[in-house]
Amino acid sequence: MPQAMRDIKRRIRSVTNTKKITKAMELVSSAKLRKAREKLENTRPYFNTIVRSIHDILASTDGIRHPFIEKREIKKSAYIVLTSDRGLAGGYNNNVIKLAENLINDKKDTSTIIAVGQKARDYYSRRGYEISGEFLHISETPEYYDAASIGNLVVEMYREKRVDEVILVYTHFKSSISFNPKTLKLLPAENIKDDNEIKRTTLIDYEPSPEEVLGYLIPKYVQSAIYGAMIESSASEQGARRNAMKNATENAEEMIGDLKLSYNRARQASITQEIAEIVAGSEALK
User: Fold this and answer.
1) Residue 240 · residue 31 · CB < 8 Å
2) What is the domain range of residue 117?
3) For 159-179, what is the mean pLDDT?
4) Which of 10, 42, 173, 263 is most buried as measured by Cβ atoms within 10 A of its Cβ?
5) What's the confidence (pLDDT) of residue 62?
6) What is the average per-residue pLDDT within 147-176?
7) How many domains does the chain have?
8) pLDDT class for 196, splitting at 50, 70, 90?
9) Could you check whether the bond before residue 188 is cis, i.e. omega within 30 degrees of 0?
10) Within 10 A of 262 (CB to CB), how many other CB atoms are there?
11) For the domain that residue 97 is a member of, what is the CATH number?
12) Confidence of residue 125 (pLDDT cuts 50, 70, 90)
């Protein structure tokens, strides 16, 4: 067998083994995606209700002064960046990191990162960013106490005026093939209304006082918003990884087809050459 044919057969075996691995990873990611979507469907209504409720409350706080809702001069910003702990997820990590960097722009010296996921920690530490907190190995299966730990950290930083705003950067899950990086300003808490939403005036009595109620509610809101974003990001990560592995498997199948075609052509050329040599030999004996 010619060396070229041996090389092609070796490459076919190699690509076939790679295809088996990517196919297995695709099946694993599909199973994890189903679980993540179930968790998301159970969590998203709660998350949306919490966000909507706190915005409705803030709409009725005219004249109330509280550190969590008062705007400050922005001297330093904290960015909570949610990424995965592992790679092989297509552009999932790059997209959310790029969005965070676009927000930071030229304010690197007045920004600090709370890295959730090893990819965020590695990326920002290599580039000399200030990292005020890192939360690793929780991206695939986030729990509320993880979000509470992150929320407590940023609330304390904001309360102590180490930062003047807190911005959450995460990936919103739209479908198994569509996920978009998004941002949400957590502190100072703001009243955000959709353009098509009708303004409502709600009369609310706060007991014992508006300040105490906001002092209790807003940290809970921050924790809940972070948890909801972690669930969204978790589902997006599994969807992105499944799609990446599916594409890798399809590319491997296409490559195997091309290699088999090359092998058959090389084999045909070898047979043709052998026939030609036999014919030439027989002619020489005449």
Assistant:
1) no
2) 30-243
3) 93
4) 173
5) 65
6) 94
7) 1
8) very low
9) yes
10) 16
11) 3.40.1380.10
12) very high
